[in-house]
Amino acid sequence: MNEVNALLPVILTALGLGFLGSGHCVGMCGGIASALSFAIPEQQQGRKNAILLAYNIGRIASYAAMGALAGLLGEQLGADKILRIIAGVLLIAMGLYLANWWRGLVYLEKAGSKLWVFIEPLGKRLLPVKSVAQALALGVVWGWLPCGLVYSSLAYAVAQGDPASGAAVMAAFGLGTLPAVFASGWAAHKLKDFLQKDLVRTIFAISIILFGVWTLWMPLSHSGHGGHGGHGQMDHGQMDHGQIDHGQMDHSQMDHSQMDHGQINHSEMDHSEASKGDTQ
């Protein structure tokens, strides 16, 4: 239960990140969603919904798989504080990217495009989509599309240092993008025009930057407590208390009124030496 409670704020952050960055997603993934929608006659609304949903489920499944791999990588690296700092920096970079204030993440997307060259042909073989199964498979493929927002979220997943937590983070991120990408299949142009407005982009970008600052602040604010935190890791069971010379201790300074004598097991105490002292 404690682990779930600790992960909940992280999942909510990833969910919010996906929602706030969904304008970017509409530009990249919304096109294929709207193409799927337009390919199906208006009279077949049930089939259209099923295909759009299957496509998005496949896409989110890919994100979750990436998150599990990212969490596994974080687990192997083990540098939790450093990974969180990197995640915070990338989130800030993503906010700047969405607001068109700095386009540095383009280089990260270009690096990812080298892998996409090998994956994209698999998606093209699934077109045109005629079944739910095809839409699901296309979503799985399209989830690997090079995207700075996805990469920023993956850095956040790496920082969790656990495959299950990483998968949960990326699944939450994908769910955050779901409303916009799913809706883009119905009203792609109107939704895109709204999300691309300067004011909307700026508000969403600043929100993501704040997420990044918060992610950075968490490890940095505790960096000065590293020395004190180590006491919690001390194994007192390994300490040899037999070597302590109690005769050299100044008991006169001890406040016995604060001691709980009810926890003392007198049956284990050796009173023979005390009796000898009294007879002398």
Give the arrangement of secondary structure elements.
Blueprint: H1 2-20, H2 22-28, H3 30-38, H4 45-77, H5 80-98, H6 105-124, H7 132-142, H8 148-158, H9 163-195, H10 198-221, H11 226-229, H12 272-279
Helix pairs in contact: 1-9, 2-9, 3-9, 4-7, 4-8, 4-9, 5-8, 5-10, 6-7, 8-9
Helix-strand topology string: HHHHHHHHHHHH
The backbone outline, from C-alpha atoms, is globular
Number of beta strands: 0
Q: Which regions have little confidence, pLDDT < 50, spanning 5+ residues?
A: 225-234, 274-280
DSSP helix fraction: over 70%
Summary of the model, kept short:
By secondary structure, the protein is mainly α. The chain contains 12 helices and no strands. It has one domain.
Summarize the structure in words:
There is one protein chain. By secondary structure, this protein is mainly α. It has one domain (2-221). Helix content is 71%, strand content 0%. The protein is built from 12 helices and no strands. It has helices at residues 2-20, 22-28, 30-38, 45-77, 80-98, 105-124, 132-142, 148-158, 163-195, 198-221, 226-229, 272-279. It is globular.
Keywords:
12 helices; mainly alpha; single chain; 71% helix; disordered C terminus; globular; 280 residues
